[in-house]
Amino acid sequence: MTKSLLSILSLGLLAVILANGSCTRSSAPAATTSAQSSSTSIKPGKALMTGADQTEKYVPYLKGKKVAMVVNPSSTIGGKSSVDSLLASGIQIVKVFGPEHGFRGNASNGAKVDDEVDAKTGIPIISLYGKKRKPSKEDLTGVDVLIYDIQDVGVRFYTNINTLRDVMESCAEHNVELMVLDRPNPHAYMIDGPILDMKYKSGIGQFPIPIAHGLTVGEFAQMVNGEGWMEKGLKLNKLNIIKLANYNHDMPYVLPVNPSPNLNTPQSVMLYPSLCLFEGTIISQGRGTHMPFTVLGAPTLKGKYDFTFTPVSIKGMSETPLHMNEVCYGLDLRKYDVEQLRKKRQINLSWMIELYKAYPEKERFFDSSYSKQMGVIERLAGVADFRKQIEAGWSEERIRETWEPGLKAYKEMRKKYLLYP
């Protein structure tokens, strides 16, 4: 063990001792605690640090414990896989749970992922995106701490928050501590979209929240626990969040690692909340290209747009994309100024309105029976009215007015769970 590592561990151990020897806390912090946490000012010149990178706050606590981890390629410590880093620090990792796309990120969107043994470390990998969605009692037998360390992008239909809830349920059922290594939400500046009508609950929408929820994963874990969103009224008593340092919700953040195969550029991440709605339409969002979520188009728009792209089968990204091997005509948003999204703090609905007006066969625009690669717009938007509003030619402003009552109530509820200003 190096002297520098010994120093880090010693400092961390001292921090734990000063904190009365305990690294756990209540899973449902009082509103006063959240308010105090969120009002802490950021000191000028201090660099943002993820929870994972602040190893002094949790590595000493993990020594001597049997640890399991929920991770994917976005889970890093200092640019290195958090699993590999913690193993090098002497932490005993007994198993890894992999979400959608798998632990090493080599599975396509929606593809089932099998259990395996990690070739690099020899650690058993249990898939949470195959035969099961959450760890079983057998999976957690002998586990002292389960660590959740996955980069999220802050939108309802990005499935990692479902996995977070599922592992919280398992930990609550089997009395295992959950540690969340918090990471920034690149869309934390924005709270927008209709609140999900639970009538349309699905794999891409499981919580009564807007499309862009404005929370880090640590804050979202507190909301899940506090609002009773786990099965059978379960509550997680052992929830430990390793907070971000020097962070606020308005802070721009470029993800150091692609969060998933089809969010492969900073531009795609920023456009995702707006463009993913098109998965409930006949318009391709660029899956089957190397520029997904930065372009929009369809073959039938020929003659209306000059820009073209052709979706093809790409292993590990999209094997059977919508409009495969067909030339699509539409919008190139690769150079769109995403700062406009930050300034308005809103999803861009103008593209949906424009392309619906331009599409010649309007009865097919939202018809998911056209292709298995099309989703159901009610599940993506979360409400029945959105389709009707677009079809009726409503303006963006008029559509947004229908969202406001739900957003107002959500924003008030959200205040209870904030950890950052």
Automatic annotation (TrEMBL):
Record domain Peptidoglycan beta-N-acetylmuramidase NamZ C-terminal: where: 270-420
GO MF annotations, alphabetized: peptidoglycan beta-N-acetylmuramidase activity
Domain of life: Bacteria
Signal peptide positions (record): 1-21
Keywords: Signal
Region Disordered, annotated ranges: 27-46
Name of the molecule in the record: DUF1343 domain-containing protein
